[in-house]
Amino acid sequence: MERCSRVLIDDPAALRGRWKTAVPGFDALWLELGCGKGRFTADTAEQNPRELLVALEKVPDVMVMAMERCCERDLQNVRFIDGDALALPVLFEPDEVDRIYINFCDPWPKNSAAKHRLTAPGFLEIYETILKPEGEIHFKTDNLPLFDWSVESFENNGWTLSEVTRDLHANGPVGVMTDYEAKFYAEGVKINRLVARKERA
Ligand SMILES: C[S@@+](CC[C@H](N)C(=O)[O-])C[C@H]1O[C@@H](n2cnc3c(N)ncnc32)[C@H](O)[C@@H]1O
User: Fold this and answer.
1) Does the beta carbon of 32 lie inside 6 Å of ligand 1?
2) Which pLDDT score, from 0 to 100, does residue 4 have?
């Protein structure tokens, strides 16, 4: 962690409502939930130097690898938070975030644990609050039951879906891949993807 302290935000709650002024020079604030080892984080930051990408991960040992990847490439537009998505309301003010990435989140297959899925209604309420009115969620998973359940969760909670696919890479690789995605793609597993927006009343 210490070697990469430049990209770690020690007290992210202190930046609530002032991310763009505290880390100036960027057009938009993107948030990645559960970044894991950070292949997607590093590649997305590198390809989008005008956006500030904040990656949140609840397992520090994994996040260190993502931080190292970004430090090795000297990326200036990425920051890391060691924390849980449940804490988002204390980290970001309403309407502060332009885009949220949820990539290959844990499926929590038992129905009794459904509320822990990052696409569960309780999380969607949090995302709606911190996202700007025109903000978007970009969601990818290999897990078809989770994807189908998430489509319902978004739609039942008033989100509009676009770019819905159950075989993202049918015609060859599309977009930036995550670590999990690259592994699944190599194994021939189909990848599901959607973009969600919530119209304000
Ligand atoms: C299956 S891995 C996927 C990692 C990466 N997104 C990828 O696609 O390669 C899910 C990651 O999300 C993290 N995670 C799960 N729930 C989380 C939460 N509530 N808040 C923050 N991170 C979470 C896990 O620790 C894990 O690193």
Assistant:
1) no
2) 84
